[in-house]
Amino acid sequence: MPHEDQFTATGPSFTGAGFPRAGFSTHSTDTVYGVNAVGTFCGVYGESLAPGDESDRQAARDLIGVVGEGNTYGVFGRGRTLAGVVGFGRRGDSGGVFGVSMSSAPGVVGQSRIDFRFALPTGDSATDGGSAIGVLGESGSGTGVSGESSQGAGVSGNSTSGHGGEFSSDQAAQIHLAPSRLTASPPDTGQAGDLLAIQRGAFATLWFCVLPQADDRPAVWGKVHLDRPSVPSPTLEQGAQGQDVKNAQGLLAAHGHDPGPIDGVFGPQTDAATRSFQEEADIVVDGQIGPQTWNALLNQF
Questions:
Q1: CA distances (Å), 237 to each of 17, 170, 207, 298, 300, in order?
Q2: Which tops the pLDDT comparison, 111 or 167?
Q3: Binning pLDDT at 50, 70 and 90, where does residue 1 land?
Q4: I need a surface site. Which of 61, 97, 231, 240 has the fewest CB within 10 A?
Q5: Burial (0-12, 13-18, 19+ Cβ within 10 Å), 158
Q6: pLDDT for res 259
Q7: DSSP string spanning 119-155?
Q8: According to the UniProt record, where is the region Disordered (predicted)?
Q9: What are phi and psi of 55, to 5 degrees?
């Protein structure tokens, strides 16, 4: 039905357009958009029904650009040179692509494949897999990929010949473990190979599960004993400067003894904080940070 802007197609599905029966179809190659639709509830709503299925003809949620529902694929996109599907969220708390699973299947599946099957790809990665990246997450200053779980794994990686997970960074740590605030010890649960950081006051301790829990026993955890940082400088005292002083100042502050500005300069306030800490740790009070004081700073927490 033509009008001053473009045209509106209405009516039942028809034959003779060069396609199977369709509500709307076109062979046009000179149009800018295959479909250009704006709606107050949903821009485009498409549904695929098997014979005998019923539909309420209403999107699950409002204010959605495209909703697709189908027994196999809700939305299928194939890009010849770029992406098959591109999602962009304008608000800071929204997502470009949002995947939800109502069953045990993943909400979002990304694979690099040579072939593509109509069903959800589950082929042997050794014979069917492509050479690119299954899921790529990039961020300028935020998080590339974030995974959360209340029961299972937030992020799971598996490989038959390479790395299950690989991390790199030129400016920060390759991996960050957010310390758990368990107050006394690791939990009774755990799987062999689990790694756990526990917050102890201002410090974090690292634990490794060596034996999983069973019906008749809790999991067995071992504390990962870390060497203290290498301290190439001699014993520190008032007047010293450098990174070693800065490390000591940070440790003093973590123990609740204010060394003043953490600037790598061993001044009177750092000397006073050192003596205060030595008295609390019940070691020789001399204002010098030698082997005994380093040991106390790094292990008494």
A1: 89, 34, 34, 18, 21
A2: 167
A3: very low
A4: 61
A5: exposed
A6: 94
A7: SPP---HHHHB-SS-SS----SSS-S-----SSS-SS
A8: 130-168
A9: -140, 145
Distance CA 192, CA 208 (A): 8
> Is-contact 277 259, C-beta < 8 A?
no
Adjacent-strand bridge partners of 196: 207
Question: What is the average per-residue pLDDT within 225-241?
Answer: 74
Class of residue 190 by CB neighbours under 10 A (exposed 0-12, middle 13-18, buried 19+): buried
Please name the residue that has the structure tokens 């800065």. 246
Average pLDDT, the chain: 79
pLDDT tens, 27-63?
Answer: 777 878 878 888 888 888 888 888 888 877 776 667 7
- Give the integer Cα–Cα distance in Å for 222 and 204: 15
Residues 6+ apart with CB under 8 A from 217: none
Spell out the domain ranges in the chain: 243-299
Residue 99 has pLDDT above 80, yes or no: no
Given strand 220-223, what is the order of strands in its sheet?
A: 195-200, 203-211, 220-223
What is the token pair recorded at 128? 């069917």
The CATH class of 243-299 is: mainly alpha
